[in-house]
């Protein structure tokens, strides 16, 4: 026990005594003594060099805002609100009002935009509003979907495809009377 406490004291004093010599001796009562001054019958102790450690803070690579790719943003939902799926639209001029919504809202500042896809062809490109009116759409069945793309043209999200029908009078139709 006594040896351990002496060793602990030496350990605590070690930084202070790093450059000083330490002497070990035994007094008249037989106790082991340590001192920084030579005593009668003492011997210098050779200490191992003090182990030092220089802390190096880990290098943390931070992403700058300019490093962030615009497609890191995720849209949760793109919903085609109008026309509804299987809806019939009666219009002699073939006018179809399209409305859709995005969750979260379109990020125009990031250069995101919509495309209106009608019958598997891009009909309107680089649209930034969530509504649009088509005209001169032929009578019959049509497939409509909306795509949301980033500034590089990469597809971010696409709505489900709705089918709608345009009903017009035939060119052979004559008004009664």
Rounded to the nearest angstrom, the distance between the terminal CA atoms is: 122 Å
**Poorly predicted parts:** 64-68
- Indicate the structural class: mainly beta
The biggest sheet, with number of strands, parallel, antiparallel or mixed sense and barrel status, is: 6 strands, mixed
Please estimate the helix content: under 10%
β-strand percent reads 35-45%
Shape: rod-shaped
According to DSSP, the number of beta strands is: 12
Task: State mean pLDDT (0 to 100 scale).
Answer: 83
SSE succession: HEEEEEEEEEEEE
Key descriptive features of the protein:
mainly beta
Summarize the structure in words:
The protein is mostly beta strands and about 180 residues long. About 5% of the residues lie in helices and about 40% in strands. The chain is built from 1 helix and 12 strands; from the N terminus they run H-E-E-E-E-E-E-E-E-E-E-E-E. The protein has one helix at about 1-15; strands at about 20-25, 30-35, 45, 75-80, 85-90, 95-105, 115-120, 120-125, 130-135, 140-150, 155-160, 160-165. A hairpin with a 5-residue loop joins strand 10 (about 140-150) and strand 11 (about 155-160). The model is unreliable at about 65-70 (pLDDT under 50).
């Amino acid at each position: 026990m006594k040896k351990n406490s002496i060793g602990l004291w030496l350990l605590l004093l070690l930084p202070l005594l790093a450059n000083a010599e330490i002497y070990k001796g035994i007094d008249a009562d037989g106790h082991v003594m340590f001192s920084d001054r030579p005593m009668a019958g003492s011997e210098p102790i050779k200490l191992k060099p003090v182990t030092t450690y220089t802390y190096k803070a880990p290098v943390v690579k931070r992403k700058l805002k300019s490093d962030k790719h615009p497609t890191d943003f995720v849209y949760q939902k793109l919903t085609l609100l109008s026309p509804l799926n299987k809806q019939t639209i009666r219009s002699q001029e073939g006018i179809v009002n399209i409305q859709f919504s995005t969750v979260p809202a379109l990020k125009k500042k990031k250069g995101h935009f919509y495309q209106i896809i009608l019958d598997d062809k891009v009909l309107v490109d680089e649209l930034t509003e969530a509504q649009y009116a088509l005209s001169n759409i032929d009578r019959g069945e049509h497939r409509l979907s909306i795509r949301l793309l980033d500034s590089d043209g990469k597809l971010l999200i696409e709505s489900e495809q709705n089918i709608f029908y345009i009903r017009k009078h035939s060119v052979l139709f004559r008004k009664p009377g």
